[in-house]
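RECORD TYPE: inverse folding
INPUT: structure tokens
STRUCTURE:
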């Protein structure tokens, strides 16, 4: 929130502020001790490394960035944060931001409902807006031998069920037969017409009817009944056989009985496999030795393929709760253990620097191997000079990558130390508010609530076109209005799904920033997450809608490009086809890059909104310039977080799977399992997605703490005694920013109980 929203006598620390001219001035507080003496002459302020810094005359630190240019000094946006003397954490006096986007999103949902109801028969607005009524049965009902959809096409509108003929094709009927009847038939149209012509008033017409029916049963073997080109002229009948109605398909009970019998046979064979072998009679002199009978394990191996599916199903039923328990709750437990281990002094630094060194050693070793191969190939007569030179150039390339990696790490070494400190702080934050880990589950539930009506609307909209069937395959033909409505539904889905993600990021950032800007961490707990949920969902709904709208537009454009690419595959000219596909591929790649950049900017803008309560445009602008001022730190955090999150995903997945294995292998339940690997595979899959959820929260916490740290440093000019940063980050400030604030004005540190904390 803007400076001055809080009361004057808040017990805040005295600080120094930058006026519009960029000069430094001291702000005093009534009823407080006087601050330390400030410098008379305001030192020149430069930007870099995440905050304002004073560059003393003649001092040249090794990690100091280039000084500002005159244009940089004149840029009003390139100024350190000046949030006022009473800043004490995330804004308390919030107001609703980007209300117009909130209304637009609500209107988009309203229009989605109108489009959906217009396609649903029986709704108050059915058939309006130029849309046709939909019928999902078009998409699921059977197609007969004439490519007619049962219950949909005019010729078979009153015949909803599909009954299969001996040819493999089907005919539409009104009701699936439940009993076998050899004197009644279901036939193709031409065959049924012949049966209907029999005069049923004459004596013995039943015999003639049955004889004619079985005559046309034999006609099913006619080649024209198996040829798709002449299938429409097929005259084929099938007597009634018992069936069950399964989604308007008449499924033969005989087929179901055969499947059941096969299962019983497999079970019997499995039982026989465990029977002891019958005693072998003594061999007769001179007779051929009888082969050894299969019994026990040998017979079980022979029948393994037959009962493989049944055993897998039984294992899943026995271990179902173990899979879910260890895959979900076990993975969360391992995740917290992982964060606890990384908080141990020296562990995280050892892991990160070890991985960094390993990457460099990998490239160096690869270069050495390529060089040795090149030397060996030069002495090999079977190899020509080009092959040896190719390996030599590859060795040079790998060595250059190793050198580049080493130079990058050397330049970022102090910022990597800062990133390690931020990662440890993020681990502490998650441990303080453990409920924050399951917050993505709430987002998934919200997405499900949206997808259910959206899917129903899309189902009726997709079935509102004209059905065309070609060789048993459905093809829907849509008019222009329905086509545009379909694209609108896609756009609404993109907007809504991205909105749920964006609102979650704002809530997470609000909780993490509140934790950071609270000196007494004992006040923080799960209630902070609930408070953040109320604040973010009530005040910043519009900001989330604004940012997600941008991403939704980009995604819709990419979807249109994919659609055009699919259409371009039908171009007959091969040259034009290749050119069109290449151009569209380049455009799609550019849009992908834009989408990634916007997601990065949006995430940092949401953090600004969470801390200061800004609307989206201002938050995005502040986030953009904050990123520019701290680009090296962000690069270092990306390296460190990439290593830590990838390692965390592997550790959580492997740890949860190992716990499940121990429980299944060393408990009585192991006697009930046939294949222990199957439950472990499903446990690993669930644990992997839980680890991804864990990493999403942890990554957002890292990004939020980095912005909080940069704001903290710019507000208090690097005075580690006044900053809100934890001990690990304060040590990083002392080590990596030595000399940057040599002439800064001192800020008096007040007791923790008198300092302002984030109010929840």
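DESIGNED SEQUENCE:
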């Amino acid at each position: 929130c803007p400076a001055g929203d809080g009361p004057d006598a808040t017990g805040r620390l005295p600080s120094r502020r930058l006026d519009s001219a960029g000069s430094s001035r001291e702000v005093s507080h009534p009823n407080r001790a006087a601050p330390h003496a400030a410098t008379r002459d305001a030192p020149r302020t430069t930007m870099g490394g995440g905050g304002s810094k004073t560059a003393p005359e003649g001092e040249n630190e090794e990690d100091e960035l280039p000084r500002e240019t005159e244009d940089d000094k004149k840029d009003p946006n390139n100024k350190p944060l000046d949030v006022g003397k009473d800043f004490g954490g995330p804004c308390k006096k919030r107001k609703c931001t980007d209300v117009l986007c909130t209304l637009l999103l609500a209107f988009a949902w309203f229009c989605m409902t109108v489009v959906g109801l217009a396609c649903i028969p029986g709704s108050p607005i059915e058939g309006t807006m130029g849309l046709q009524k939909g019928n999902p049965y078009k998409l699921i009902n059977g197609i007969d031998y004439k490519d007619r959809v049962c219950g949909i096409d005019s010729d078979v509108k009153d015949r909803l069920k599909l009954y299969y003929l001996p040819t493999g094709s089907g005919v539409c009927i009104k009701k699936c037969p439940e009993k076998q009847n050899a004197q009644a038939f279901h036939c193709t149209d031409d065959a049924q017409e012949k049966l209907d012509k029999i005069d049923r008033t004459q004596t013995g017409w039943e015999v003639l009817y049955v004889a004619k029916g079985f005559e046309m049963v034999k006609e099913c073997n006619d080649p024209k009944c198996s040829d798709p080109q002449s299938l429409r002229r097929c005259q084929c009948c099938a007597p009634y056989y018992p069936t069950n109605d399964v989604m308007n398909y008449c499924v033969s009970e005989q087929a179901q009985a055969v499947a059941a019998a096969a299962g019983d046979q497999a079970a019997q064979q499995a039982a026989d496999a465990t029977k002891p072998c019958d005693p072998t009679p003594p061999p007769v002199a001179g007779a051929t030795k009888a082969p050894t009978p299969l019994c026990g394990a040998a017979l079980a191996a022979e029948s393994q393929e037959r009962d493989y599916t049944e055993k897998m199903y039984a294992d899943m039923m026995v271990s179902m709760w173990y899979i879910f328990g260890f895959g979900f709750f076990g993975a969360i437990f391992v995740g917290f253990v992982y964060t606890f281990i990384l908080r141990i002094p020296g562990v995280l630094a050892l892991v990160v620097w070890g991985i960094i060194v390993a990457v460099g050693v990998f490239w160096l070793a690869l270069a050495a191997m390529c060089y040795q191969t090149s030397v060996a190939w030069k002495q090999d007569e079977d190899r020509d000079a080009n092959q040896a030179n190719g390996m030599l150039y590859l060795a040079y390339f790998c060595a250059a990558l190793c050198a580049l990696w080493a130079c990058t790490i050397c330049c970022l070494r102090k910022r990597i130390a800062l990133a390690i400190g931020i990662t440890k702080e993020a681990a502490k934050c998650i441990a303080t508010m453990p409920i924050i880990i399951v917050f993505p589950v709430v987002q998934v539930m919200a997405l499900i609530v949206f997808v259910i009506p959206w899917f129903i609307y899309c189902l009726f909209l997709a079935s509102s076109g004209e059905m065309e069937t070609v060789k048993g395959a459905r093809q829907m033909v849509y008019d222009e209005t329905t086509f545009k409505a379909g694209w609108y539904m896609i756009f609404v889905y993109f907007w809504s799904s991205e909105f749920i993600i964006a609102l979650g990021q704002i809530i997470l950032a609000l909780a993490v920033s509140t934790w950071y800007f609270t000196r007494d961490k004992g006040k923080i707990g799960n209630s902070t997450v609930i408070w953040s949920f109320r604040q973010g969902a009530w005040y910043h709904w519009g900001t989330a809608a604004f940012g997600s709208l941008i991403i939704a537009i980009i995604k819709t454009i990419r979807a249109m490009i994919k659609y055009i690419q699919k259409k371009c595959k039908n171009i007959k000219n091969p040259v034009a086809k290749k050119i069109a596909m290449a151009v569209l591929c380049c455009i799609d790649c550019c849009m992908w890059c834009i989408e990634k950049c916007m997601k990065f900017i949006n995430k940092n803008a949401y953090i600004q909104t969470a801390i200061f309560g800004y609307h989206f445009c201002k938050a995005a602008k502040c986030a953009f310039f904050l990123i520019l001022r701290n680009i090296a730190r962000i690069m270092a955090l990306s390296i460190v977080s990439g290593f830590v999150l990838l390692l965390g995903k592997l550790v959580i997945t492997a740890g949860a799977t190992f716990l499940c294995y121990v429980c299944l292998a060393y408990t009585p339940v192991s006697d009930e399992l046939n294949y222990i690997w199957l439950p472990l595979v499903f446990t690993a899959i669930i644990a992997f997605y839980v680890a991804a959820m864990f990493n999403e929260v942890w990554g957002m916490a890292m990004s939020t703490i980095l912005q909080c740290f940069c704001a903290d440093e710019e507000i208090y000019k690097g005075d580690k005694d006044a900053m809100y940063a934890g001990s690990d980050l304060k040590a990083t400030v002392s080590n990596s920013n030595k000399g940057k604030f040599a002439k800064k004005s001192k800020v008096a540190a007040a007791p923790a109980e008198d300092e302002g904390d984030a109010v929840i």
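NOTES: DSSP finds 21 helices and twelve strands in the chain.
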